[in-house]
Design goal:
This protein has 460 residues and is of the alpha/beta class. The protein contains 15 helices and 22 strands. The longest helix has 25 residues.
Length: 460
């Protein structure tokens, strides 16, 4: 039986990062992956989705040609070409991860791992057994089906099925107006799909600041996406040619029909069939329980990424992977402040946020101040002909400490990392306002909103 210092189970953005960091710290490391390196994010999530959204963005820009001084006839749009490009990008990224494994001399094993003890695993179907001083579980999560209705991969689908489609559906109902739901709504709508989004909460993107959610919903509707909030799905029925969805709302019962239904209502941790019960790993409430060092109730076993349920984002999994590796190596990594981690939605408009929403800040007892800078006042946004939306900052009145940043508009996902760093450092709004932002850039809206909070807005 081969022995290692660390065995990582799962090769997604948490697992392969944990493996690389472990090797960098001098630990003999193995990684077990049952499908493809890169996990859901690289293969069937973040990366292929963004490739398809880029194609859709180009189509949208072409539709605005007259405003930019060009026109043409007989534009041909081929969704299958976009699909093939998405797979090409994925394959290139997989090869990059494979090269990382070789560079850091990480032993990669293909198959499904199962815990046999706190320090030993077996791999199916090969039957290989491995041991290690420490195990890192990074098995991820899978889409949650609508209660009582299974995914069939054709009429009732999840995001992974959607990414395997070689044509956009003629019509689609999307259940759940979170980031995944709204990204597919944007994508399919721009390829001509008649899209209806059903959300049981009062606003789309219900975890975002209320002002941002309201603005995003307005822009989605203006683009032609049909959205119904406060809509609780009661039943899904598959017919010969379509799917019907019965919805209950304050206005009564209503039935919607479409070619396909995308269910995007959350995730379930991949905790089954990996030996947790036999070994005694605590997986209460469906997720593996951890401390701030990513350690489970068994000292030799760690859990990172979606499987621990702390925050289901790829960059969170990567950060947790580094913390687990450094903890195993005897270092003292700083614990994650999950509220300050950036959250992004790559729909049109884009949404990006970090820190507390206004509601959360008020409920937390802060004396809150807020300010907004609309992108209509931003020269770069006007030059791009993409000037809808705004930046909203939230601060504490007494200390001027920055509490939250929330943005809706074009390319705002590229703006959030800087202010997220200021949140982590507990900087005041004057630090953001006094940071000189280059002109002309969209980022100036952050500086302008900070000036407004300080009482001396310049351009608004």
């Amino acid at each position: 039986m081969e022995n290692f210092d660390v065995i990582v189970i799962g090769g997604g953005p948490g697992g392969y990062v944990a493996a690389v960091r472990s090797s960098q710290l001098g630990l003999k490391t193995a990684l077990v992956e049952k499908e493809h390196l890169g996990g859901t994010c690289l293969n069937w999530g973040c990366i292929p989705t963004k490739v398809l959204l880029r194609n859709a963005e180009v189509i949208h820009l072409l539709s605005k040609g007259r405003g930019f001084g060009f026109a043409f006839e007989n534009l041909s749009i081929d969704y299958e070409v976009a699909y093939k490009r998405s797979r090409s990008v994925v394959n290139r990224q997989i090869k990059r991860v494979e090269l990382l494994m070789k560079k850091y001399q990480i032993s990669v094993f293909e198959g499904s791992a199962c815990l046999k003890s706190e320090h030993e695993i077996s791999i199916a179907p090969s039957g290989t057994s491995l041991s290690a001083s420490h195990l890192i579980l990074a098995t991820g999560a899978k889409p949650r089906p609508f209660p009582g209705t299974n995914f069939d991969g054709k009429r009732i689908i999840n995001f992974r099925h959607a990414l395997g489609m070689k044509r956009a559906p003629l019509s689609a109902i999307i259940i759940g107006a979170g980031p995944i739901g709204m990204e597919f709504a944007t994508l399919w709508h721009r390829y001509g799909t008649r899209v209806t989004v059903l959300e049981m909460m009062p606003q789309v993107l219900p975890l975002e600041d209320e002002a941002v959610g309201a603005e995003a919903e307005k822009q989605f509707k203006r683009s032609g996406i049909d959205i119904k909030t406060g809509a609780s799905v009661a039943k899904i029925a598959v017919g010969d040619q379509d799917v019907s969805v019965t919805v209950a709302s304050a206005s009564g019962s209503e039935v919607f029909s479409s070619e396909t239904v995308l269910v995007s209502i959350g995730f379930e941790a991949n905790t089954n069939d990996i030996g947790l019960d036999a070994v005694g790993v605590d997986a209460g409430h469906g997720y593996i329980q951890i401390n701030d060092r990513m350690q489970t109730n068994l000292p030799g076993i760690y859990a990172i990424g979606d499987v621990n349920g702390r925050m289901g984002l790829a960059h969170v999994a990567s950060a947790q992977g580094m913390i687990a590796a450094e903890s195993i190596a005897g270092r003292q990594p700083k614990k994650l402040e999950y509220a300050n981690i950036p959250r992004c939605t790559y729909a049109q408009p884009e949404i990006a946020s970090a820190g507390l929403t206004e509601k959360q800040a008020r409920e937390g007892g802060y004396d809150v101040m807020t300010a907004q800078c609309p992108f209509v006042a931003n020269g770069k946004a006007l030059a791009m002909d993409d000037n809808s939306g705004f930046v909203k900052l939230i601060s504490e009145r007494k200390t001027n400490r920055l509490l939250g940043v929330h943005m809706v508009g074009g390319h705002v996902t590229e703006l959030v990392a800087g202010p997220a760093g200021m949140l982590t450092l507990e900087n005041g709004i004057e630090h953001l306002g006094r940071t000189i932002h280059p002109h002309p850039t969209l980022s100036e809206a952050l500086m302008e909103a900070a000036h407004a909070l300080c009482g001396h807005a310049i351009h608004i």
